[in-house]
Model the fold of this input.
Amino acid sequence: MKIIKFIATSLFCSLFIVIPVLIIRFLSLDAGLPLKIIYSLLLASILISTQVVFARKNKYGLKDYLLWILSHSILMVNVAIVLIPITWMVSASFTAGDLLSGVPVIPNPSEWTLDNYKYLFEYRRSSDQFLSDYLKAFSTTLYIAVLNTILVVVLSSLVGFAFSRYKFKGRKGILLTLMGLQMFPAFMGMIALFMMFRQFGLINNATALTFIYVAGAIPYNTFIVRGFMRSIPKSLDEAASIDGASNLQIMTKIIIPLAIPIMGFIAVTAFMTPWMDFILPSIMMPQNETLAVWLFRFNHLTNATYRPLKFMAGALVIAVPIIIVQMYMQKYVVYGLTAGADKG
Done:
């Protein structure tokens, strides 16, 4: 049995050596002896570590042994699928020049430069601007994201608390209406919204655009918050009422602290929305551009200069605040993906 395990592992792990070599040969790349040595050492370590792990766990049968190899191999492939484009994008942002053809398939950090980033932070359409165009669009998007996060969290908490704790006339009808609104995509009302904004002079107003994001997020988030808060025992409310707590104190002192995980999930999704949206800001804020709109116009194919490498640099900078928020709120995101699903 041990011989069969060793042969099966050796054959399966050998694919990690054969496949990269075939890919390199297919792309007609000269990998060079150092890279081949690195491949061999890396994949040999995988083979050896696999043998060591299962040498200590003889209680597993051949089936479990092969399933372990298969599952971890699939995970490795998925990681590679995610990391390879990101690595290439990082390499492109640090590559000198203006064309994608100049980006090497295998990154070479010794040839990297900061020219693309310097261009982004120094480029100005007008010489009398205090901030560069990129930083101006970045600050506008950051303002919308922060304001949207605050309003969505506060309003969704209030509405979700009301629907989870109180029974009032029309409650079911309002919930059904909120559910029905989710069936229609937001861009269906863009023409009407544009006419209203133009009539009231709100075009190019970042605060007014934020209200659209908030209004669109409340119905969906209401159901999430309501489902989560319904899982909190009402006996806590009753005990607080007996002690003389008001409804506001019950919400702020008891329910909201217990609902922090779902609040964190809502905050992350609300913060990410303005960074990713393009259609709505391009219509409502044609002059006061957000970052997504500015990058599109900066790198549009109809422009006199096509700048894909600078576009890569700008897109990576966009990812920085999102990554920071995601890392800080990761535990809330994971918990919030399933919270509120058991009770509606």
User: Anything to note?
Assistant: The chain has 15 helices and no strands. Residues 133-165 form the longest helix (33 residues).
